[in-house]
């Protein structure tokens, strides 16, 4: 009877096994798959208890699912066993194909190790194939490999089973069923992990896309509605610097519509004097203060700050430029600088500014040395620049006699070029045709009496009018400065001795004309001393020389010619 019913029993078991495999392949999540695997061992394979030990990323194994005994499930689920201890178990006992069976006669050494485990009670076996309570049976689960088969991939977990319900060690059919089940469970767990990873990746991707969309929208709103000007320009290539997009604030600042802005780059809009500043501004974190041209042709001072943004991880890079209107601040700075360098009464450059301008025209090279070098160059009919200007870097250099000169490589363009134009002075008291920097020291005659008789307001009115007449009597580019009190200085470059004398006469004639001050006409005279500035002198030496000549000129004139009032 038992023999006749065996095929029917096995067929029923196969049906249960098939159903268990179908269930674990249709579970909705990794956790459901693991629990279905454990339940299938109990319900389809006929074991009293089963645990799924899953390999973690760190290599240790965690009890991820348990079936068959609620008390044991509560005791060991979630506990972790070290990989080394598991490797010890999987290398012990008997090999039943891919299964590892550790009989109680060997497994007693594992009773106190650190792998989560349970104990079942029961009497000692009465015959050879009866299951002992300390027997252990493990079914390793390997990820499917390229060649197929249960052991072709890495270990992903171990099925631990205990005590078949018939009380006997599994026979050949039971072992094959458990081994096949572990193989299918490995596939199901791998697929569930893949689905779980894909779902997490999709969720993460969606969150990143949402964050990107939110970031793009935030950037768009920040860009469009920023209170200061912003622009996005191309970076690199033939169209480097061309404006691709500009916000409303920048369009309002420059008085240009967004469609027109796309035809320009900042180099098209910058003031000619500031183009060098723009070109020197670093693309990454560069900052500059310069002037941009409005549509009406006027210029506005702005602070321009650059940063580089990428369209994607490996996409094209763009230049994000922040443009802040600093016109009012710049106007205040220029006003402060003007007040610091100009006389508050007359508006002329003050003493400090005069010395600064004069020092800028002078160098420490003495005029005698300058003349000697020029004379030597003239004597040889050539100059260093003229002789070698056409020589390419690295080429041999020959003089007019064919002699070879082994010069070092040429420096970079403008690296050592001297832009300074040396100031020279005419020699002697005669006009020899030399044009130099004339320094006219002017002292008003009779000004103190006007102050004493009519008050300081009248004196101030005289100084203001004299400053106006002096400024009107010189060329553009000449400097008229108030040195202090009733002393003025004129810097006029490119004059010969006769030119400077004529200028002094013209200016004196302008000054001596009647001046309206406090409702009355007054007169002042003027004494001029003409000095000459040349390299090798200091500004104070030049002014002292002109001052001394002025006093010589003042003493040489009759006193009545110096009176005013």
Automatic annotation (TrEMBL):
- UniProtKB keywords: Coiled coil
CDD domains linked: GGDEF (cd01949), PAS (cd00130)
Q: Name one Pfam family in it.
A: GAF
Q: Domain named PAS: which ranges?
A: 215-274
Domain (GGDEF): residue spans on this chain: 435-565
**What InterPro entries is this protein classified in?**
Biofilm_reg_signaling, GAF, GAF-like_dom_sf, GGDEF_dom, Nucleotide_cyclase, PAC, PAS, PAS-assoc_C
> Which sequence ranges form a coiled-coil region, renumbered to this chain?
191-218
Q: What is this protein called?
A: Diguanylate cyclase
């Amino acid at each position: 009877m038992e023999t006749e019913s065996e095929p029917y029993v096995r067929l029923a078991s196969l049906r249960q096994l098939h159903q268990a495999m179908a269930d674990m392949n249709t579970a909705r999540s990794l956790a459901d798959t693991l629990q279905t695997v454990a339940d299938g061992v109990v319900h389809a394979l006929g074991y009293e208890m089963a645990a799924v030990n899953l390999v973690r990323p760190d290599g240790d194994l965690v009890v991820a699912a348990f079936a068959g005994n609620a008390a044991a499930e509560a005791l060991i689920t979630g506990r972790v066993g070290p990989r080394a201890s598991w490797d010890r178990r999987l290398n012990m006992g008997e090999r039943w194909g891919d299964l590892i069976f550790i009989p109680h006669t060997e497994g007693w050494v594992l009773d106190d190790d650190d792998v989560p485990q349970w104990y079942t009670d029961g009497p000692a076996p009465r015959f050879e194939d009866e299951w002992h309570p300390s027997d252990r049976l493990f079914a390793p689960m390997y990820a499917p490999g390229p060649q197929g088969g249960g052991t072709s991939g890495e270990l992903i977990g171990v099925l631990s089973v205990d005590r078949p319900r018939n009380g006997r060690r599994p026979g050949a059919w039971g072992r094959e069923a458990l081994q096949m089940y572990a193989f299918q469970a490995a596939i199901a767990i791998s697929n569930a992990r893949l689905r779980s990873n894909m779902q997490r990746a999709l969720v993460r991707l969606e969150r990143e896309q949402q964050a990107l969309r939110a970031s793009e929208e935030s950037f768009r709103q920040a860009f469009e509605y920023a209170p200061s000007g912003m622009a996005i320009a191309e970076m690199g290539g033939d169209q480097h610097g061309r404006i691709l997009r500009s916000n409303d604030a920048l369009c309002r600042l420059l008085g240009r519509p967004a469609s027109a802005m796309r035809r320009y780059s900042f180099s098209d809009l910058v003031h000619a004097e500031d183009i060098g500043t723009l070109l020197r501004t670093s693309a990454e974190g560069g900052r500059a203060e310069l002037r941009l041209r409005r549509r009406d042709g006027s210029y506005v001072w702005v602070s321009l700050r650059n940063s580089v943004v990428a369209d994607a991880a490996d996409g094209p890079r763009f230049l994000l430029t922040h443009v802040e209107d600093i016109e009012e601040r710049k106007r205040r700075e220029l006003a402060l600088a003007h007040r610091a360098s100009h006389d508050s009464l007359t508006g002329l450059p003050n003493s400090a500014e005069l010395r600064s301008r004069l020092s800028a025209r002078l160098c420490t090279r003495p005029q005698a040395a300058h003349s000697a070098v020029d004379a030597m160059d003239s004597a040889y009919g050539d100059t260093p620049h003229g002789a070698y200007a056409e020589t390419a870097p690295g080429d041999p250099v020959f003089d007019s006699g064919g002699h070879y000169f082994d010069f070092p490589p040429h420096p970079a363009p403008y690296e050592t070029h001297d832009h300074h134009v040396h100031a020279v002075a005419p020699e002697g008291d005669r006009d020899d045709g030399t044009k130099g920097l004339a320094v006219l020291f002017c002292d008003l005659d009779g000004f103190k009496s006007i102050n004493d008789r009519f008050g300081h307001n009248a004196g101030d009115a005289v100084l203001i009018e004299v400053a106006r007449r002096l400024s009107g009597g010189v060329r553009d580019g000449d400097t008229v400065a108030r040195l202090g009190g009733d002393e003025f200085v004129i810097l006029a470059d490119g004059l010969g001795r006769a030119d400077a004398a004529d200028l002094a006469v013209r200016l004196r004639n302008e000054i001596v004309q009647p001046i309206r001050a406090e409702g009355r006409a007054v007169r002042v005279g003027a004494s001029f001393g003409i000095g000459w500035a040349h390299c090798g002198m200091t500004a104070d030496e030049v002014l002292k020389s002109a001052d001394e000549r002025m006093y010589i000129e003042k003493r040489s004139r009759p006193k009545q010619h110096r009176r005013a009032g």
